[in-house]
C-alpha cells in the first residue's frame, strides 16, 4: 500500500509539475502583449489568464454575449482572445464616429485562414483588400440600379412562380416554412440572374439551397476560426478547416458544371449579364486585373450566399413580426390594396409607392439583422473616443446592440415601423445608426436588391394570403450559437387565399 501511495504521489507530483510548466509556457507564449506605442486602449472587462475573454464567445449567441458584456462594462471595450486584441463597439455614437471619420482605416476584413474556401476565402469579394479596383467596380456594375433594372423580368417571373407555389399549397391546406420558401425564391432569382437558364437544370436550385443551409450552419465555426486563427496558426492549427473545405469543394464542383454548360450553350439559352462579365474578364489575356476560373466561382458563391441566407432570414423575421401584429398587417393591406389593387400581383416597381411596407421591413431588419456582428480590422492606428487603437487590432461592431441602443432609439426593443416614416433630415442623422447592411466602403453592395427581394416577397404574401399559425403568437426566440441571426423555431404557417382570382403581374 505504502509503495503504491508513494508511486501515486510521485505520478501526481510529476503530472502537476508538467501541468504547471506547460501552463507557464503557454502563458508566456500567449501573453505577448501588443506593442504599446502610446497605446491607450478602451477599458477591458476582467479576463481569465491565458484565454482572456474567449469564454464569452461560447455562452449562447455571440452578439447577445457581447451585448451583455457591453451593458455591464461600457459600449467601447478592449477584449483579448488569447493574446489577440479586439475592440468591441456596441453604441450608436461610437459606430457613427468610426464610419464617419475612420471608415478607410477599417475597410478590410480579417482572413479566416482558409484561402481556398469559396466563401470568405481569398478569391471572392469579402476578403479582397479595399481598393481592389476590378472587384469593387464589377460589384457596383453587377448590382447597381441599371443592372437591376435590366434583370427585373427574371425577378418578376420568379415572384409569380413563388405566388403560384404558395397558392397551390394553400389549396391543399399545406403548412409552409416561410424561411425555406424564401430561400428557394431568392436562390432561383439570384441563380438565374448570375448563371442564366443553365441554373434551372439538374435540380441546381435545391442544391444551392442545401449549400446555403450547410454553409450557414458552419458560420459560427468560421467566425471562431477567424478569431482563433492568429493565436493558433503558430502551432500550424487551422480550426474546422476540413469541415468547411469539404462543403466548399462540393459546391465548387457544382458551380464548375454549371459554368461549363453555360459556355457550351452560348447561343441557346437565356444569358446572364453577370456571368458574361465574369467570363469576359477571365478570357481577356490583356486585362489589367486577370481573374481565374476560381475567382468566378468564388464571386458567384459569395453572392449566392450573401443574397440567399440573409434575404430569406430577413423575410422570415419580417413575416413573423407582421403575423404577431394584426394592426400592422391591416395597415399594410390597406396600403397595398389602395396602391396596387386586387387584380394584379404587387411588383417591385410598386415599392417606392409603398412607404409603410418599406418601414415594416426596415424595422424588422433593425431588430433582427441577419449580420448581427460586423468584423473588420484596423489597417492604421486610429484615435477614437479619446482612445488610441493600434494598427492590426481586430474590430467587431455589434450591429445588433447598436440598433437596440436606447440612447439612439426610442423604445428600442419594440416593433414600431412608424419610426421609419420620419422626415428626411431626421432620417439622414439616423442613417449611421441603422446598420443591417453594415456601412461605409465595405457596406453590403446588395442592399438595393435585398430590399427588392424582401419587399416583393412580403408584399405578395400580405396581399394574397391570410396566415394561420399554431397558437396565438409566433415564438420570436433567437437560435443560439450562430453569428447570422436565425429564428430558434422556424416560422411554419398555413396560407389561406385572400384574393380569389388574382391576375399575374404584367411584366
Ligand atoms: C436582407 C438582405 C441582406 C442583408 C441583411 C445583408 C447584410 C450584409 C452585411 C451586414 C454585410 C457586411 C457589411 C459590413 O461589413 O459593413 C454584407 C456584405 C456583403 N453582402 Fe449583403 N446583405 C443582404 C443582401 C445581399 C445581397 C442580395 C447580395 C448580393 C447579391 C449581397 C452581397 C454582399 C457582399 C458581396 C458583401 C461583401 C462586401 C464587401 O466585403 O465588400 N448581400 N451584407
TrEMBL record:
**Topology relative to the membrane:** Single-pass membrane protein
Binding positions for heme?
A: 444
Q: Tell me where in or outside the cell this protein is found.
A: Membrane
GO cellular-component term (any):
membrane
Locate the transmembrane regions by residue number.
12-30
Q: Which GO terms describe its molecular function?
A: heme binding; iron ion binding; oxidoreductase activity, acting on paired donors, with incorporation or reduction of molecular oxygen, NAD(P)H as one donor, and incorporation of one atom of oxygen
Sorted keywords for this record are:
Heme, Iron, Membrane, Metal-binding, Monooxygenase, Oxidoreductase, Transmembrane, Transmembrane helix
Which Pfam family, giving just one, matches this sequence?
A: p450
CC cofactor:
heme
The Swiss-Prot or TrEMBL record describes its family as follows: Belongs to the cytochrome P450 family.
The protein, known as? Cytochrome P450
Amino acid at each position: 500500500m505504502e509503495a503504491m501511495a508513494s508511486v501515486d504521489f510521485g505520478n501526481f507530483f510529476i503530472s502537476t509539475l508538467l501541468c504547471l510548466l506547460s501552463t507557464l509556457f503557454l502563458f508566456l507564449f500567449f501573453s505577448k502583449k501588443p506593442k504599446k506605442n502610446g497605446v491607450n486602449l478602451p477599458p477591458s472587462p476582467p479576463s481569465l489568464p491565458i484565454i482572456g475573454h474567449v469564454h464569452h464567445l461560447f455562452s449562447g449567441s455571440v452578439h447577445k454575449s457581447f451585448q451583455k458584456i457591453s451593458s455591464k462594462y461600457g459600449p467601447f471595450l478592449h477584449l483579448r482572445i488569447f493574446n489577440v486584441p479586439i475592440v468591441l463597439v456596441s453604441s450608436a455614437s461610437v459606430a457613427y464616429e468610426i464610419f464617419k471619420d475612420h471608415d478607410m482605416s477599417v475597410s478590410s476584413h480579417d482572413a479566416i485562414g482558409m484561402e481556398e474556401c469559396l466563401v470568405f476565402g481569398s478569391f471572392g469579394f469579402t476578403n479582397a483588400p479595399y481598393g481592389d479596383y476590378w472587384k469593387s467596380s464589377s460589384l457596383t456594375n453587377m448590382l447597381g440600379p441599371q443592372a437591376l433594372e435590366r434583370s427585373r423580368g427574371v425577378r418578376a417571373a420568379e415572384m409569380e412562380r413563388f405566388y403560384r407555389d404558395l397558392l397551390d399549397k394553400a389549396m391543399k391546406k399545406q403548412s409552409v416554412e416561410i424561411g425555406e420558401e424564401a430561400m428557394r425564391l431568392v436562390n432561383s432569382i439570384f441563380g438565374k440572374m448570375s448563371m442564366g437558364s443553365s441554373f434551372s437544370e439538374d435540380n441546381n436550385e435545391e442544391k444551392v439551397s442545401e449549400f446555403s443551409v450547410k454553409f450557414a450552419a458552419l458560420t459560427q465555426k468560421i467566425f471562431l476560426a477567424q478569431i482563433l486563427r492568429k493565436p493558433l496558426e503558430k502551432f500550424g492549427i487551422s480550426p474546422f478547416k476540413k469541415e468547411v473545405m469539404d462543403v466548399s469543394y462540393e459546391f465548387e464542383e457544382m458551380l464548375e458544371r454549371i459554368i461549363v454548360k453555360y459556355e457550351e450553350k452560348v447561343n441557346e439559352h437565356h444569358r446572364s449579364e453577370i456571368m458574361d462579365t465574369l467570363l469576359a474578364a477571365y478570357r481577356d489575356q490583356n486585362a489589367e486585373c486577370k481573374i481565374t476560373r476560381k475567382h468566378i466561382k468564388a464571386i458567384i458563391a459569395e453572392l449566392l450566399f450573401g443574397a440567399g441566407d440573409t434575404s430569406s432570414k430577413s423575410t422570415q423575421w419580417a413575416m413573423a413580426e407582421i403575423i404577431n401584429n394584426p394592426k400592422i398587417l391591416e395597415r399594410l393591406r390597406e396600403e397595398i390594396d389602395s396602391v396596387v389593387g386586387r387584380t394584379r400581383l404587387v411588383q417591385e416597381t410598386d415599392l417606392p409607392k409603398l412607404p409603410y411596407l418599406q418601414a415594416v421591413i426596415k424595422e424588422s431588419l433593425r431588430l433582427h439583422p441577419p449580420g448581427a456582428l460586423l468584423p473588420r480590422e484596423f489597417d492604421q492606428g486610429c484615435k477614437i473616443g479619446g482612445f488610441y487603437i493600434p494598427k492590426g487590432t481586430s474590430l467587431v461592431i455589434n450591429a445588433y446592440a447598436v440598433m437596440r441602443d436606447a440612447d439612439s432609439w426610442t423604445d428600442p426593443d419594440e416593433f414600431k415601423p412608424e419610426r421609419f416614416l420620419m422626415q428626411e433630415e431626421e432620417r439622414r442623422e439616423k442613417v449611421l445608426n441603422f446598420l443591417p447592411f453594415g456601412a461605409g466602403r465595405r457596406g453590403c453592395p446588395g442592399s438595393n436588391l435585398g430590399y427588392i427581394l424582401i419587399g416583393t416577397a412580403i408584399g405578395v404574401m400580405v396581399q394574397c394570403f391570410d396566415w394561420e399559425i399554431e397558437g396565438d403568437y409566433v415564438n420570436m426566440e433567437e437560435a443560439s450559437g450562430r453569428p447570422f441571426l436565425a429564428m430558434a423555431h422556424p416560422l411554419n404557417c398555413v396560407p389561406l387565399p385572400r384574393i380569389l382570382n388574382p391576375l399575374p403581374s404584367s411584366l
